[in-house]
Fold each of these.
Amino acid sequence: MTAAPEQQARESKGLARGQIGLLGSIVIGISTIAPAYTLTGALGPTASEVGEHLPAIFLVGFVPMLLVALGYRALNSAMPDAGTTFTWSSRAFGPWIGWMGGWGLLAATVLVLSNLAGVAVDFFYLMLSQLTGRESIADLTTNVVVNVTTCLVFMALACWISYRGMEATKVVQYVLVAFQVVVLLWFAIAAFVHTADGSAPAGLAVDPQWFNPLGVESFSAFAAGISLSVFIYWGWDVVLTMNEETSGARTTPGKAAVGTIVAIVVLYLTIALAVLSYSGTGDTGLGLGNADIQENIFVALAGPVMGPVAVLMSLSVLASSAASLQSTFISPTRTMLAMGHYGALPPRYAKVSRRFQSPGYATVVAGVIASAFYAGMRVVSEDVLWDTISALGMMICFYYGITALACVWYFRGSWGGDVKTFLSRCLAPLVGGVLLLVFFVQTAVDSTDPEYGSGSQLFGIGLVFLLGVGVLALGVVVMLFQYRARPGFFRGETIARGRTTSVELEGEVTP
């Protein structure tokens, strides 16, 4: 049987086709990962765990992401669909696992939107404080009313741009991503110059041992590397959810996924080497081991490294979080569109704006949910918000892992006879998926400890565990409700469970 059912379903969703090319996809992928925002919070804690082996641990974290990306590329090549995890895992494992995979993606992306908006608020007022020289302006973020109001404005603006479709998204992302990358590279070059002329606090020469993962002293540091792979690399899969709107839907998104991850790891390694050479890992002054500066490394180092133009770093982190806020809308809205299209959610989620050819209803829903979540959590407790973001790592590992294993199972009939096919459709996604699912289980176990995360607890159980497992449990409840309301999807009437054989490699599907 030919691949017509999947292709016809893809073409009938109503999204604008062919609007994004390879470069545009990579730019949006980098935007969602948000390197400036991610690095300023990740460099310090990571260095405190692994010391001078920071580049090595970045490479360790890069491996499972690359392996999983190869699985995504293979699945997209066979059946490009905006539903990605939801559609692919439904095809491989059936509607129940497929629905929960889609829920994991939705929960992670929609709730992360609230965190990105909160970070944008913090750096917005920090930027104003630096520009005006009035430190009191930066303190406005502690005012709950001001904080929440500003966040809602940012969220509404990002939602509006996303509603207007991929063309508007692409234009905004080119500007914001180019700016943050230029500033990051400027920062790195300036740090290397200070190191070379002897004006850096540490002034260390780059040591090949920094790249040696075997030099990391403990297994916990390797676990931290896998953990970081979730947070510092997460977001590259957005390029797959745009596949129906991309030129060359079967090939371009897969290339963009790999290209995005490779570009990010090169950028991360460049910044890591610059910061290590300049600051070292001491626990005083500007050393990366100093607990007083670890929460926001760039705020501490921008002035000494960049001098009078240090405000550009604050602008860069603001641009990074704002760009990611806007581009992160892409994944949940396209997933909800697909779930509505295939009958896993009410049909109104499948509505597409006639003017902009974007998932209008789903975009508004994502914005409203993320805004309500941020406002509620910010009023209750800031710690609760950060614990929630920590718990999202479990969901990210969950849906990445499911998707990677879906690749292995879906292509089980086409492994033999070709080493390249075996590596890309079986071994690579299998190893990557297993690693992430093991980390999902390990995190779930560790987070039961009341001291995990912020130390918040309920009935002696860590709040991170309760939030992470609670959101997944809520997904089961919603799924059962949808089963009663829309049983067709769960009976396999809209997405047929299937597998491939060697014929698939020539463009045919056997259900």
Amino acid sequence: MISKILLPLLLAGAMFTQATAQTSEAQMKPSPSRLLAIDSAVVTRHEVTIKGQRVPYTATAGSIPIWDEEGKPLAGVFYTYYEREDVKDKSGRPLVISFNGGPGTPSVWMEIGYTGPRILNIDDEGYPVQPFGMRDNPQSILDIADIVYIDPVNTGYSRPVHKDVPGSKFYGVNADIKYLAEWINTFVTRKGRWASPKFLIGESYGTTRVSGLALELQDAQWMYLNGVVLVSPTELGIDRNGPLDAALKLPYFTATAWYHKKLPADLQQKDLNEVLPEVENFTINELIPALSRGGSLDEAQRKSIGARVARYSGLKEIVVQENNLDVSTNLFWKELLRDQGYTVGRLDSRYRGIDRQTGGTQPDYNAELTAWLQAFTPAIQIYLREELNYKTDLKYNMFGPVFPWDSKDNKTGENLRQAIAQNPFLHLLVQSGYYDGACDYFNAKYSMWQLDPGGKLKDRLKWEGYRSGHMMYLRKDDLAAANENLRKFILQSIPAKGQAAKY
């Protein structure tokens, strides 16, 4: 029996779906309440020029429900789906399924910043400009793949059907993976995309999500992928406590210090890609063993290692020694430009901030995140309402209430390894920004090494670095390079016709 609470929502969804079936470009009227039409769609037609080629496409903005074990709707998950119009046979057309992270953020960042056909107005380095708005993305991967951007529950326009639906259904590592796998099954079935080569791409916490989904889709939905892309990956449940955690961030410190010209002259005059291998080798071969010694490290070794850490981080040697050779990222962001009166950004250390006082051990705010929110928030509001004609009074959650988040039993790195081992067609691409201090590039390399400790899968694993931060695509040069690398990865991960999946 349908409850009195659910019935109006179901009817709203059914009425809306029927209306859009009559005309694909019908505009939604703003809802008199902030309730999501849980099964809805608005379809509009567009075109974009990508790498000199005209690409006509449809854009679908809407919501598809997720259900409980009894078939009752629990929530509506909002999505936008871009499908190239002039491709008749979809069986060989790749489908890219895209997520962002948080875990409380929608897919807005990659949709209008990276791979989608329309991107926000920013300058060439990724800083906000006015007037806010949108422009065509000549680098989009829509020329070679259709893309769906998915907003998990309580992000973007996605919502539970009622406040009494338990958050435990959605808000946790494994709950998130389970319901989103079910949703992907529904989407692929509705859109007739079972034959298509399929790729998952996630950014930040989205990398935890898609790593777990790779195996969940295989085991629970019998859906097999061709590729997984991790953009600025998290730790994926791979243990690195103690000396590892302390040491692995040093190459990121070096990259940031190099950008701000805080390294010694002999290092500063080298290109970044000449400096980093030296620091990586020191980190693995000398710093980790030294930190493992703890208090047993003799004074001469401690002084020698501290001097090297200071040299490679741009920090004063006394700061390194006072922190037992382990400077926290918070202190690094505060200390590096302290003499100039600035802090550096967490997610992108090219950004500078200004604190209330020069003293202290951590910045007052994340300089990069406030800049990104200033640029992205008006752009997505304008885009969804005015270009995709999705009209609603719902608040678009750039950061939604998804806490407490259950982080227990995070085995997503191992799950990804199993998925790759079990499926000979499955390939992995990792993309990192050198100036990302939240999900730093060397930790991403370490995770990839630990995914394949036996070295048996390495011909299907690839890492790439870019000279920007967490959202490396906001820098114009990296937008072009990262999309082109994605394009090549997708096409190279599709087997030749008739090729069997076997070892």
Amino acid sequence: MAVKTADVRLEDRWRDILSVHARTMCEIDRALHPHGLGASDFEVLDILASEAPGEGDQCRVQNLAGRVHLSQSALSRLIGRLEKDGLVERSVCAEDRRGVYVTLTGKGRALHTEVLPLQREVLSRLLG
């Protein structure tokens, strides 16, 4: 049997990481689907709940973009869907008209609280 080169071991490790990520995202999608959410939707709600914990607290979309692994356009579409569902509200920054804020609504905060244990259970089962 040939000894694996460092490059091959690194590539194998990378593929393992991708596989764990894909399985975890699929399981989160399955767990949250009955609640009308996907893994990426939850991730945005979860970040908003931690970054803007108080009622009416805002988070800049730019800050979300740095933490969610989506393109700017995909994030914008996702926020649009969450807004349409009444889970978040968007507003333009008064000081910098290019800046956009996102606020978790009461409905969004309640849904996040409801599904948080489901997401954490999947993480615990697959990564714990």
